[in-house]
Each structure stands twice: as C-alpha cells, then as structure tokens.
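Anyone have tokens for Endoplasmic reticulum-Golgi intermediate compartment protein 2? Sequence:
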Amino acid sequence: MSDNALLDALDRMPKTQPSYVRRTSRGGLVTVVLGLAMLVMIWVELSTYLKGEHDVTFDVDSHISRLLQINIDITVATPCSKLSIDLRDASGDSMHFDENSIAKDGTSFRAQISFARSKRRHMNSLNALDAPRLAGQVSRTDKYYSSKGPRDKNSGFSKTYPLISSEPACRIFGSVLTKKVTGNLHITAPTPLFMMGDMNSLNMSHVISELSFGVHFPYMAEPLDSSMEVTDDASAVYQYFLSVIPTNYYKTGRKVRTNQYSVSDYKRRPNGPAAFPGIFFKYDIEPLTMSIHNRSMSFVAFIVRLTGVLGGIWLCTNYVLRTLHRIQRLIRRTPLGRDLLDKLQASAAMPDSDTPYNQSPAQPQGSWGSTSGLYDPAYAASTPSYSLRQDSFATHRTPSSGY
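Reply: yep, here.
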C-alpha cells in the first residue's frame, strides 16, 4: 500500500469510536447554550467592526472663530403676533430678529406635543438599548444659515405641519449667526403688551423640537431636543443655562467642526415675585475642545479578534465541563457523595455516570467495578459461554460448569 493510500485510509477512519461517545440531554443543552453564546458574540463583534469605536479626548480650545451658529425650533402656546425674539451678547450687541432671520408660523400646540412625545418615547427606547448610539439612530438633518431665511429649502428646516394661522400657538424656527461669546436669547411678549396688563392670551408653555449650535454629526445628542414644558401660569418664566463645548468629529479623514452643550433649567414659582414672562436661554462658551475620533479596525484584525473570542468561549466551556466531571467523580468516591448522586440521578431519570463507554445497553448497571476492574460472577454465570471449539455452544448456569 502506498503512502497516499495509507493516509487516505487513516483519514476515513473515525477519530473517536462510536462506543466511546454517549449522547445525553444535558450535553445537548450545553451545545445549544454554547451555540447561542457564540452567535451573540459574532453579532457584537460584527456591530463593533461596522460602526467603529469612539475615542474621546479633551484639549484647550485653540481654534479662533468669530461666529457661532444657533439653530432653534420651538413652539410656544402664544399667538405669533404677541411674541418677539432678540439676542444680547457679552460684547454689548443687541439683535432683534425679523422674518428673514427667524420665521414664525401658526400651528396646533397639541399636535406639537404629540410629535414631541412620540419622538421622546423613541429616544427613550433607544437609550435603554444603546445609550452612546442614541442620536445616531434618531432622524435629524443638518441646519444651515441661509440669506433667504429659514423657509429656504437649503436651510434644512421642514415645513410647519399642521400650518394653522388661527391657532393660538406659534412655531419659531431658524438659524442665526452671532459672535462666539456669551449671550442671551430671549423669547418674550412685547413690552407694551405686558405693561398694559393684557395677560389673558399669554402662555409660555413650549415644546423644544431642536436647539443646537452648529451642524449635526452622528452619535450627537442634544439634551433639549423633544423636551416640553406646560403651565397654566400666564406670567411663567423659564430660564435655561447652557454650557457650550466646541466639538471636532473625525471619521474617514473627514472633520466636522460643531458644538455640543449641557443644560440646567429653572422655572419661576407661581407665587413668587412678579417677573417679565418669557423663555430665556443663557449660553456660555467653554474654553475646551472635545475631539471625537471614529476608528474602525481592519478586516484582518476583525477576523483575528472574532476567532480568538469564539475559540476562547469553546475552550473555557470545555475546561468547565471537564472540571465539573472530575468533581463529580471525586464526590462519587465517598459513600455519602455516591448515595447523593444516585438519588439525584434516580430523580432525574439519568443514566449512571460511572457506566463505562464500552458497556452494552443489555448489561445491568453496576456490573463492572469502577476501580478494581473485576467482573461480577453472578452476571458472568447468567451469560452465554463460548467453547474453544467452533462447532459447539453451551450455556452455563454456574461458574463451576465445565466445557
């Protein structure tokens, strides 16, 4: 026989004899659990490979910029004719915005509340599943400053829906460019209206669909998006204190320069001192820069990592099963442990773990000694005995019977 034929014959031979393998329900359960665990790890590693990993660093803000883009989309439960929008910054400039800068459309306040609640539920469900990737799965478009106003199709703002001019609610939306310094954005009632005491039509309940500084980037979450405040106090005052952090986002050689913020809010007590009703946003520019790098591993590194994870799960499971089996055999060597295991196996209707792999199903349990290697004479007496002669066959009832 040639070497190749011998190798082929060896390859066709089973590596493990079937009589040495025993299938049990416990082993099948371990196989199913192990398979599910490996599928979960494959899914986790594949998601990490496709979405990449984030590396966040902080540094001193060395970028010199004179302008800051503010995007606002707020619905207030007050008619548009009784609201004014202005901004004052730390440099002393004061700006009052008209329709060419910030648009005002009449709409239904209840509809805006319903939209905000549905979006908030969607965001909360995503937050429960995967908080760092929350904003990457929430639909949002970039907002840009347009000289034609926020109703321009290139501004990124959607049309007002439902658009109802007679409704006592106003949607205020648009993008403005201001100096990159501390400032205050005010949404208030005109001073003459407040001084004349016409407070019946004022209601500062509001829904903030979006408030951001700069363009959007993936995995960006703004704390005031889809938030709302509802009140019956005509003289209610809402104050928001924002801390704006310049942010640089890097992905595949592309850099996005924008801003994020944290916020704390305050509402005047209904029984507090008299105040000018309105919604006030005070923002401060932090001297730090947050850099977010989205890095993805190579395909070779992904395969190596996946192979290592799956092989580790398989090897650890094998070690655990071997350890448990050895512990079981050590316990069985003691009389107390043997009785306990026999009772457990009898209650679970499981085969004896000490049964040798080469024992036939017709053989009674416990006919072979686990440590002495001797056979049971009673069993040998009740089994057929073959003579050395090929033409004779005899069945003996006692060990002393001769051929």
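The longest strand covers residues 237-251.
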